[in-house]
Amino acid sequence: GAVVSQHPSWVICKSGTSVKIECRSLDFQATTMFWYRQFPKQSLMLMATSNEGSKATYEQGVEKDKFLINHASLTLSTLTVTSAHPEDSSFYICSASSGQGYTFGSGTRLTVV
Amino acid sequence: GENVEQHPSTLSVQEGDSAVIKCTYSDSASNYFPWYKQELGKRPQLIIDIRSNVGEKKDQRIAVTLNKTAKHFSLHITETQPEDSAVYLCAASPSGGSNYKLTFGKGTLLTVNP
Fold first, then answer.
1. Burial class for B42, CB neighbours closer than 10 Å (0-12, 13-18, 19+)
2. Minimal Cα distance from A109: which residue of B?
């Protein structure tokens, strides 16, 4: 079946630094990747939709200059949290549609200290 | 845009009982409705899905029903087991398996008591 690999699975960073999260589709081409954020005991909140070779589409209220998304190839999309602050601490997870449905990455637990 | 409401937010049942979780959606263009099971700190796992040309779908102890006129769909779990305990998420999309985004409900924390 379709697999999306997400790295890192967890990261701790200092306030003010940037963190990059990668999602790779291993056995299919993902022209579109979705990036979600999930706070404890809450549902998945869509942050942005990344399209290969074009600019990402951000949901209302999501700062595009803070959450940089790059989708340079059909198998790789990255989310960079710039100038991270403690309030950015969350579970970030990507998803791609493969023709078999939507496949999720394993998620990244970001803790900003 | 699409809005998905999910109820209840928490559900506690005894082992062997049935559990029902309901979702409503707002966009009549939605035609793909997946259900996910998510354990703490892990990725959502698809457990069953339904498309708008079907009213009901069953897979062993799990079933999903769809009422397109009323814009609601429900997850039914029979003979619940403690390992069914998790957060269940419903979602809706204009077209599953394509490049349309999924809109999720707020989730239901299901607890199955032994």
1. middle
2. B41
Contacts of B103 in chain A (CB under 8 A): 46
Contact between chains at A41 and B109 (C-beta distance less than 8 A) = yes
Residues in contact with A64: Cβ distance below 8 Å, sequence separation at least 6, in sequence order: A48, A56, A58
Tens of pLDDT along chain B (114 residues) come to: 889 999 999 999 999 999 999 999 999 999 999 999 999 889 999 999 999 888 999 999 999 999 999 999 999 999 999 999 999 999 999 875 556 889 999 999 999 999
Mutation target to probe the B interface, by most B beta carbons within 10 A, among A5, A11, A44, A100 is: A44
The phi, psi pair for B79, rounded to 5°, reads: 45, 55
Q: How far apart are CA B30 and CA B50, in angstroms?
A: 11
Q: Is the Cβ–Cβ distance between B78 and B18 less than 8 Å?
A: yes
Tell me if residue B7 falls in helix, strand or coil. Answer: strand
B19 alpha carbon, distance to own chain's centre: 11
- Tell if the CB–CB gap between A105 and B46 is shorter than 8 Å: no
